[in-house]
Design a protein that fits this description.
By secondary structure, the chain is α/β, with parallel strands linked by helices. It has 7 helices and 11 strands. The strands form 2 sheets. Strands 3, 6, 7, 8, 9, 10 and 11 form a 7-stranded mixed beta sheet that branches. It has a 4-stranded antiparallel beta sheet with strand order 2-1-4-5, with helices on one face. GO terms for molecular function: ATP binding; ATP hydrolysis activity; transmembrane transporter activity.
Length: 238
């Protein structure tokens, strides 16, 4: 698939999701463009993480359609959606979710190994990202011996090592101090600009949302038509 700046890479129409009798998403529409950073904002419980999980193929919506390019995610098997998350998508959760038995370098290299890359090539790429993110000193350390911030930087390296076409970041700076969080956000911006990665950034922080090109605000499972729900363009720190 050709990476054309400005083309829509991910599209959602009428996405609905409930947990039992409780609605989480009430018919969400969303477009994510190539190389765009889109912030999903809103209060806790507004549906931000649920929407991200649906868009990443982790959850299946109850209704609506999500397409990645020309591919309808609803028609994909679990194995096909897992393959997308190994090759085309990167996912960065708030608390890392690392494999505790693996070192930081092994965790970061894991997506490449799962797609058939050689161990030496995968480790080299993992070490490069750990170094860029300021976590090279824990390359051979396992998660139980890392701080929360170090674990999150390792998880970021794992999410970025494949040069994903779409990066899903769910409160990515939650475990980081302000300086380290700003450094990580700077890398997400550069990934979007330099390698054509589109970024969907879930946050409740206006300061973090300011790194995005646009902001989509959710409230009670719906886009906020009174404010930024239509996707107002905002400033990006340089």
């Amino acid at each position: 698939m050709t990476r054309t700046s400005g083309a829509t890479v991910l599209r959602a129409r009428g996405v609905v999701k409930s947990y039992g009798p409780t609605p989480a998403l009430r018919g969400i529409d969303l477009d994510l463009a190539e190389r765009e950073i889109l912030a999903l904002t809103g209060p806790s419980g507004s549906g931000k993480s649920t929407l991200l999980h649906c868009l990443a193929g982790i959850l299946r919506p109850d209704a609506g359609e999500i397409t990645y390019g020309e591919l309808a995610l609803g028609g994909c098997s679990e194995a096909e959606r897992s393959r997308l998350r190994r090759t085309e998508f990167g996912v960065l959760f708030q608390f890392g979710q690392l494999v505790e038995e693996l070192t930081a370098a092994e965790n970061a290299a894991l997506p490449l190994l799962l797609t058939g890359r050689g161990r030496k090539e995968a480790r080299t790429a993992a070490l490069e990202w750990l170094d860029r993110l300021g976590a090279a000193d824990v390359a051979d350390v396992r998660p139980p011996r890392m701080s929360g911030g170090q674990q999150q930087l390792c998880a970021a390296a794992r999410a970025l090592v494949t040069a994903p076409r779409v990066l899903f970041a769910d409160e990515p700076t939650g475990a980081l101090d302000q300086l380290t969080g700003e450094k990580l956000l700077g890398h997400l911006v550069r990934a979007a600009r330099e390698q054509g990665t589109s970024v969907l950034l879930v946050t409740h922080s206006p300061g973090i949302a300011a790194y995005a090109d646009r902001e989509l605000s959710l409230y009670d499972g719906e886009t906020d038509a009174t404010g930024l729900g239509a996707g107002q363009r905002i400033g990006v720190p340089r």
